[in-house]
Design a protein that fits this description.
The protein is an alpha/beta fold. The protein has two domains: 5-123, 3-Layer(aba) Sandwich (Rossmann fold); 126-290 and 310-327, Dihydrodipicolinate Reductase, domain 2. The chain has helices at 14-23, 39-48, 58-62, 79-88, 103-116, 130-139, 145-148, 185-201, 283-302, 312-327, and strands at 5-10, 29-35, 53-54, 69-72, 92-96, 120-123, 153-162, 204-212, 223-230, 233-241, 248-255, 258-263, 267-272, 275-278. Helix 6 (130-139) crosses helix 8 (185-201) and helix 8 packs across helix 10. It is globular and about 55 Å long. The structure holds nicotinamide-adenine-dinucleotide. Nicotinamide-adenine-dinucleotide binds at residues 10-16, 36-38, 41, 58, 73-76, 78, 96-98, 123, 125, 170, 173-174, 188.
Length: 329
């Protein structure tokens, strides 16, 4: 099947405009209609992509004839209501993480998805990363652990640090990103790694979490130190605003016979039998592979074919762990 699949985009901030750039290179997915509550964001998107049409509001975009899918790149608060409107119109939905902080609305939405067979997925960039596939092969439930030879998993360590929050590339995002109600690095960045952890090992339980916030009562967390358990394995998190690297992230999976490290999002280093090697190519090539695969998976979602994107239930399970981390214990 080679039909063009028409995409409507709501939310044209940092992420929405990045996705428009990526979509413009895909052979089948075609962004055609956009809307944002901020007219300046619409104007910027139209300037960069003159073929786009602007809708008058969210309902008009979602109801537009000929659309196949809605991409939601607003901050979390409207994610559920926009998803429901899109399902009413028979659209497949690709929604940004974090899914929501309104768990009741998410559960109702998930029930509808399951009962009606709605097509919905959430954008965790690492879902299409070769590094995740390697971890699943090495340590996942259906893994060929013996074949890859890493042996039993001992522990997982996650270290992230940001010279400043928000990071430079998201500095133009709305104030929500630096506020504790919806934003912060735990929801924004740790959620990607909790997704990886739970996709490979299953549900995680927070056993200890210490969170520091600024004294103003509004700003998002500045430090989070935590321990979790997943599939009987200890997981430790050391996350903070500090250091001099814009976006430092390393997830180390240490096992009896070797280790795998994901770093700078897409790099994967495999250490085994006394030798250490960058696995699968450089970060940029691995990122490009993941981004192309993600769009292919989105096309499969729209067409009702099997795909590897996380659904809303998987994304809610991630968010439950994230909010438990933020509650502290
Ligand atoms: N998957 C990833 O790798 C990744 C990366 C960055 C951001 N994100 C996610 O993408 C989403 C957007 O982040 P961002 O950095 O682009 O934020 P942003 O603040 O730059 O952009 C959000 C845009 O949504 C618009 N908006 C807000 N409420 C709206 C509504 N009800 N209807 C229509 N438009 C509305 C705002 O005007 C703004 O233009 C967030 O959920 C964020 O966590 C995901």
């Amino acid at each position: 099947m080679t039909e063009t699949l028409n995409i409507g985009v709501i939310g044209l901030g940092v992420m929405g405009r990045r996705m428009l750039d990526r979509l413009s290179a895909h052979p089948r997915l075609r962004a055609c209609l956009v809307w944002d509550a901020n007219p300046a964001a619409v104007a910027q998107a139209l300037q960069a992509h003159p073929h786009l049409q602007a809708a008058t509001d969210a309902a008009a975009l979602i109801g537009h004839a000929g659309l196949h899918s809605l991409y939601i790149a607003t901050p979390p608060a409207p994610h559920m209501a926009l998803s429901e409107l899109a399902f009413d119109a028979g659209l497949a939905v690709f929604c940004e993480k974090p899914l929501t902080v309104d768990f009741a609305a998410a559960r109702a939405c998930i029930q509808r998805i399951e009962q009606q067979g709605q097509r919905a997925a959430v954008n965790f960039a690492l879902a299409s990363a070769p590094g995740l596939a390697l971890l699943e092969q090495a340590f996942g439930q259906a893994s060929s652990a013996a074949e890859l030879g890493f042996g039993a998993l001992d522990e997982v360590q996650l270290n992230v640090a940001f010279a400043a929050w928000p990071r430079p590339w998201q500095a133009a995002a709305g104030s929500w990103l630096s506020e504790r109600r919806e934003g912060g690095f735990t929801r924004e960045v740790l959620s990607h790694f909790i997704f990886v952890l739970q996709r490979v090992l299953g549900p995680a339980t927070v056993t200890r979490s210490a969170v520091s916030y600024p004294a103003d009562g509004v700003g998002a967390e500045t430090d989070l130190q935590a321990e979790l358990q997943a599939a009987g394995c200890k997981v430790s998190i050391n996350a903070r605003v500090g250091g001099n690297i814009a976006d430092d992230n390393r997830m180390l999976w240490r096992a009896a016979q070797g280790e795998i490290e994901l770093s700078t999002w897409f790099s994967q280093i495999r250490q085994q039998g006394g030798s250490s090697a960058l696995d699968g190519g450089d970060t940029d090539s691995l990122r490009a592979l993941a981004q192309t695969d993600q769009l292919d998976q989105w096309a499969a979602l729209i067409e009702g074919r099997p795909h590897s994107l996380p659904g809303y239930a998987e994304a809610l399970a991630v968010q439950e762990t994230i909010e438990a981390l933020l509650l502290g214990r």
